[in-house]
Amino acid sequence: MPALTRLVAQLPATLPAAVLVVQHLSPDSTGQPLVDRLSEHTALHCQLARNLAPLQAGSLYLAPPDRHLLVKDQQLLVTKGPRENNFRPAADSLFRSAAVAYGPNVVGVVLTGMLHDGTAGLDYIKRCGGTALVQDPSEAEFPSMPESAMRNVAVDYILPIHMMGRVLTELVGAPPTPPGSALIPEDLQMEAAIAERVVGTTDEVNRLGQQVPLTCPDCGGALWELKHGSLLRYRCHTGHAFTADALLEKTQESMEETLWVALRMMEERKNLLTSMASHGAGPWNVQQAEKLEEIKQHINRLREFLLNGGLTAQPAPTSTPDPNADSPLRLSPNS
Q1: How many CB atoms lie under 10 A from the CB of residue 3?
Q2: Is 82 exposed, middle or buried (CB count within 10 Å of its CB: 0-12, 13-18, 19+)?
Q3: Is the Cβ–Cβ distance between 223 and 211 less than 8 Å?
Q4: How far is CA 84 from CA 57, 118, 243, 329, in A?
Q5: pTM, full prediction
Q6: What is the phi/psi pair of residue 223, to 5°?
Q7: pLDDT (tens digit, 9 = 90+) per residue, 232-266?
């Protein structure tokens, strides 16, 4: 919120564009206090997004907690669709719907934040002819979101917060591209349609990519590896979507949880064997004692593995920057 309030404070009430905001919030929180806080810092008309509300210039719309914010046909769509990159609301789903609806007239901005949300979304915007901005990671409180975007997407601007308002005002002040004049990739149109309907079909996802021997960590369904864009991405037919980095981290969490359960079960088995060994006699008692020593070794190895960070994920391969792409405009505080 500090970065967001500093940014919107620079935007005039006459801004000839709508501002749509995704803030990662707890599902049981309420967004209205954040709307009130933003209203104290900007001349824009701030409101919590409502389903089917008209999209108006000079207004700021905040995605409600635990709901995706999309746009279509000059209005807002607020849905409780599947999580994308483990988030709902997700910047990726908003960026994709805006890119499909408005093409080159979209400007995507990624500010301070953790993990990878917004990276795939900026790629969608760039593929549809739009403009990508990120906060300079050197001044970001949590730099991983802007750094992820910079590693994977040919961003146009890398800016400190205090310079973003002027650049954004100049960008949206240019004459807009006429609707329908830009070619929107078919795969993004399909993904946007799936998000609007909340669920897709296997036939649709088959057209987007190739099924791979991986399962969705959220629903257990099959995953498809998507073949479009510069990022390695995955999605299931129910709508959960992941970049490779997000999927790697999600599966790491699931595996760690499974291993802790396994450790608990082995501890219980050790306790049971201890009781049995203390009440047994003869060769049977010796056999249980051997099993007890064996499981103690397994417990020690597994505990050491978990406590020493043996599950630390390595980043998935990133895309190779296009040598022909223009370098981003990186402005320093003194520019």
Answers
A1: 17
A2: buried
A3: yes
A4: 27, 10, 9, 29
A5: 0.77
A6: -110, 145
A7: 999 988 889 998 988 988 888 888 888 888 889 98
What angle, 0 to 180 degrees and rounded to 10, lies between the N-to-C axes of helices 119-127 and 144-152? 40
**Alpha-carbon span 165 to 170, nearest angstrom:** 9
Tokens (6 digits) for 116: 């990878």
* Cα–Cα dist 42/314, whole Å: 41
**Which residues, 6 or more positions from 183, have their beta carbon under 8 angstroms from its beta carbon?**
none
Give the torsion sign (CA, 36, 37, 38, 44).
positive
Question: Which run of H or of E encompasses 287?
Answer: helix 282-307
**Packed helices 244-279 and 282-307: angle between N→C axes, nearest 10 degrees:** 150
From the CB of residue 115, how many other CB atoms can be counted at a distance below 10 Å?
18
* CA gap 58, 72 in Å, rounded: 18
One-letter identity of residue 160: P
> What pLDDT, on the 0 to 100 scale, is given for residue 331?
59
| Residue positions counted in the chain | 335
> 3-state class of 192 per DSSP?
helix
* 116 φ/ψ sector (left φ>0, alpha ψ -120 to 50, else beta): alpha
The residue type found at 255 is M
